[in-house]
Amino acid sequence: MSNVDSRTAAEVMAQVRLRKPDRQQVRMVMGCDDELIGPNHPVRRIWDVTGHLDLSAFAAPIKAVLGNVGRDSTDPRLMVALWLYACIRNIGSARELDRRCKESAPFRWLCGGVSLNYHTLSDFRTQFADALDELFTRLVATLVERKVVKVKRIAQDGTRVRASAGAASYRREERLNQLLEQARTHVATLRQQLDDPAQSAALGARKAKARARAARQRVERLEQAVAQLPELKRKQEEAATKAGNGKVGQKRREKQPRVSTTDPTTRVLKMPDGGFRPAVNVQLATDTDSRAIVGVDVCNEGADSADLSEPMRRQVEERTGQKVEEHLIDGGYCKHDDIRDAHGEAVALYVPPKPARTDATRGKELEPKPGDDAAILDWKHRMASDEGKTIYKQRASTIETVNADLKTHRGLTPLTVRTLPKIKCVALWCALAYNIMHFATALMS
């Protein structure tokens, strides 16, 4: 055995020279926050783009103005830049963004010494719905004006995103009414306790207000849940009538609709992995030439249907001021009435037919039939042609990849906010981040 092998571990460590951390060493460091990141870091692009955006709608509600006392408000440009960069870094939580603002150099560079907390960040994310929608419209209109986006041909598809509602929070009508009565009784009891000086003094003002607010919000959610039932019953009856009087129709009639007590606006939807979970349907439309997102909407429909295509087309035309001439949609949207309506508006729908129900008619869905009007014949000829098939391939190569991009890289992660209006705000932030990341140069030119 050699001398080296015969030495103990302690002897080896005692003889080698090592550089060890000394966290008690006092240092004087001269520098500024601008040195935290390099000159070509992507976060600088976000800050530069936000400087070219009109953010006056975000600043309009601020009460800290010249001539009035009070604490200065946080710069809306900073808040917008933080959420855009958070989406680019696939961050979908205000608490996580708050942590990054303290620990991550790019976020610290954005803050520039301004202190924030998760509550302020969370509120800003969802409380400017109209301003956010208008900002998205102006950004898309700018891309159209600078010839980057054309919207002559758009592609549309929906993607399901996990909602912030517990799977066990869905209740039937009888149970919802019971919970609502209990919640109202609890609010009345709590109000009596808080009105009693002896009992309220033990809680403290802040805790008392928190309890009252939580009880009141629970009553509001339960009332919203009960209000959702008539619409669900109507849709259930329509589905049962369509299914007929057989076993399927009878089963649908006997099934009682359920609504979530935590987020009444969400539904249990079938997810891409085949499972069923509380989720929302985020609808996106893209320009097939530039791949820019030009339309965003959120609904709780379990399937992509024809009722979703026409509103999206209207939205795109209003945002861009341009006429949509060709609309590429998935087979779930296929409905003859919608094809006729689009034909009357000089819009060519590219949508595959629904699969035939029998083997005898399978593969013949696009063959002309007696009674087909001009709109249906035109659609069948279009989808059966080689040119139509080539054009329709652009749907999968554009909108589906954009959906994947938002869910993988742009913060469209399992949601941490509730109600459809707030969820749409999240979708708009993600769409804005996507467009800015891909078209920053055009926006700043």
Task: Estimate the global geometry from the Cα principal axes.
Answer: globular
Count of discrete alpha- or pi-helical segments spanning 4 or more residues: 18
CATH fold annotation of the domain at 149-165 and 267-419: Nucleotidyltransferase, domain 5
Q: What Rg is obtained from the alpha carbons, in whole angstroms?
A: 28 Å
Give the integer mean of the pLDDT values. Answer: 88
How many strands, which pairing sense, and closed or not: the largest β-sheet?
6 strands, mixed
Structural class: alpha/beta
Helix fraction? 40-55%
Gap from first CA to last CA: 73 Å
In short:
The protein is α/β, with parallel strands linked by helices and 445 residues long. It has helices at residues 3-6, 9-15, 42-50, 56-59, 76-88, 94-103, 105-111, 118-127, 129-145, 173-195, 197-203, 205-243, 247-254, 309-320, 336-344, 374-384, 386-409, 420-444; strands spanning 153-162, 170-171, 259-260, 267-270, 276-287, 293-299, 326-328, 348-350. Helix content is 54%, strand content 10%.
Task: Note the topology.
Elements: H1 3-6, H2 9-15, H3 42-50, H4 56-59, H5 76-88, H6 94-103, H7 105-111, H8 118-127, H9 129-145, E1 153-162, E2 170-171, H10 173-195, H11 197-203, H12 205-243, H13 247-254, E3 259-260, E4 267-270, E5 276-287, E6 293-299, H14 309-320, E7 326-328, H15 336-344, E8 348-350, H16 374-384, H17 386-409, H18 420-444
Parallel strand pairs: 1-7, 7-8
Antiparallel strand pairs: 1-5, 2-3, 4-5, 5-6
Helix pairs in contact: 3-5, 3-18, 5-18, 6-7, 6-8, 9-18, 10-12, 12-13, 16-17
